[in-house]
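Readers of this paper often ask what the protein records in our data store actually look like. Below, we set out a record of this kind in full and without editing:
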Amino acid sequence: MNTLRAIWNSPDLRKRILYTLALLTVFRVLAHIPMPGVDLAAIRAFFSQYALFGLLNLFTGGSMENFSIVLMGVGPYITASIIFQLLIIIIPRLEELQKEGESGRERINQYTRLLTVPLSFLQGYSTLILLKNQGIIGGFTPIELFTILITITGGTMLLVWIGELISENGIGNGMSLLITLGVLAGIPSSLSQTFQIADQTGFVSIGIFILIALFVTVSIVFVNEGERQIPITYARRVRGNQASGGVATFLPLKVIMAGVVPIIFALSMMIFPPVAAQFLKTVQTPWVQTAAQQVIDLFANNTFYGIAYFFLVIIFTFFYTSIVFQPEQVAENIQKQGGFVPGLRPGRETSEYLSKVLNRVTFFGSLFLAAIAVLPFVVQSLTQIQTLVLGGTGILIVVSVILETMRQIRAQLTTRRYEF
């Protein structure tokens, strides 16, 4: 209560929080404005039937099952961001831009926004074709199709703008908050459906579900905050009558350094084959239709899906961690700043040590992320509850964003206490 009172008594912080809440409210209103001429009941049944597309709907904040004017959510922007993170490693010019500081990062952000436009158009078109092939929506005239795609693209760019406004003038990361709110918005309807069938499943199953949810939440908080601290010592320097350095600090290596990006990568890889197969089913060649149906049936098998998803998350965790943390570059920066790891020589020996420790930490983090990704299937088999899926990915997103937002609020409060 003292913290809440301190937040409310700070005019600037109170303004930031109310500003954030207002923009999040606008997002939820937009997510419930459907485009005309669509059977919403059929769309929701489709997304509830396929776990892959249900998880994709989760990342759009429920906009896909509502077929709203913000159909794709901020998904295309996230895809564009991932593409540029990969391109920075490949293209030297982009790597130089990133090292230029704030101006360079702003140019990369601008490129990301520009790439979001064609990606929104392309992903929106693919979604419409998929729903059409399933018989959920009818055909469109060229003008109607172009109008819908322009609306979808405009809705995505509007959400990107709202997210950036929250990041600049509000509290927390705007894009993450939009996704988190979408995850939380789906909980009340799931709870309502679950309690309606409680007589069939039994309250024991619901109790097991609640216990598992609490355990998973605590585990995610524990692992998400976990880090390996590498001690760093900076040599003491004497310049004239002034001495500097001689400071002992540490380099934190987080257990889940890659965040939820490996899960998004793996999800994209798992979605592509069945989506492509849905397109190929309409081909007139018999053997192509047969092969496409076999691919669809294979990915509809929960056992195959769970095993493939599990290993893909592990692979992409190592891949993305190697992108965001490069031991050679970190060791070089430590050496340039006059620092060293006690007992190790600066340079190559330090780099090899960091790589060794990073691989050990990442291995545990990858197993944890993979377990979180396949958690819904385990929970469904234990509780037999199909209406309330314990999305480990959703919990991971919510927990991570809430912890980060809390840290920002504490930082704001601390700054204001020091001012007084």
